[in-house]
């Protein structure tokens, strides 16, 4: 005798197509062509970087501005660099510039950012990662890893 499968307790409702497709829309509500939206955005994040009290808040703000669809403004990068140096995190300062380099579309744009930010970077003692040079990883020899 063959048994039929038990009927499901709940029937699955078909989701509409819009609910099934997840769209990453980081800049929702921001219109890049609107000067009002842009100014409000820059003011909000400039205030955040000027008043952030710890590394967590700084990094949270950096994650937010670099998650947007457009590259951050020079003012925001300047405020972020000031905040990172105020908290004495040189590595974060270098990472901000590295993230900016990856965010812009052309190398010329990155060079323009550096040219505008050069006086501030000199004042804060910040350099981009290319000025630091290449470093080779030094591994300590350990007796248990020797294959001899």
Can you characterise this structure?
This protein has 148 residues and is mostly helical. The chain contains 7 helices and no strands. The chain has helices at 17-20, 35-51, 55-67, 74-86, 90-103, 107-124, 129-132. Helix 2 packs parallel to helix 4, helix 4 runs antiparallel to helix 5 (90-103) and helix 4 (74-86) runs parallel beside helix 6 (107-124). The chain is extended and about 85 Å long. The mean pLDDT is 82.
Mean residue pLDDT: 82
Helices and strands, in order, run as HHHHHHH
Find the count of extended strands (DSSP E, 2+ residues).
Answer: 0
Q: Report how far the terminal alpha carbons are from each other.
A: 68 Å
How is the topology of this model organized?
Elements: H1 17-20, H2 35-51, H3 55-67, H4 74-86, H5 90-103, H6 107-124, H7 129-132
Helix pairs in contact: 2-4, 4-5, 4-6
Defining key terms:
7 helices, 0% strand, extended, 148 residues, mainly alpha
Outline:
With 148 residues, the protein is an all-alpha fold. 56% of the residues lie in helices and 0% in strands.
């Amino acid at each position: 005798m063959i048994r039929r499968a038990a009927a499901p307790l709940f029937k699955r409702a078909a989701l509409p197509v819009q609910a099934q497709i997840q769209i990453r829309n980081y800049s929702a509500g921001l219109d890049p062509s609107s000067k009002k939206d842009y100014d409000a955005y820059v003011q909000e994040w400039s205030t955040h970087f000027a008043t952030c009290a710890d590394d967590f808040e700084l990094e949270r703000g950096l994650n937010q501005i670099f998650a947007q669809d457009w590259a951050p403004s020079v003012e925001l990068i300047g405020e972020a660099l000031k905040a990172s140096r105020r908290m004495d995190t040189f590595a974060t300062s270098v990472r901000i510039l590295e993230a900016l380099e990856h965010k812009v579309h052309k190398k010329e744009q990155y060079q323009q950012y550096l040219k505008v930010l050069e006086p501030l970077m000199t004042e804060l003692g910040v350099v981009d990662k290319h000025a630091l040079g290449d470093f080779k990883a030094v591994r300590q020899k350990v007796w248990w890893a020797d294959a001899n």
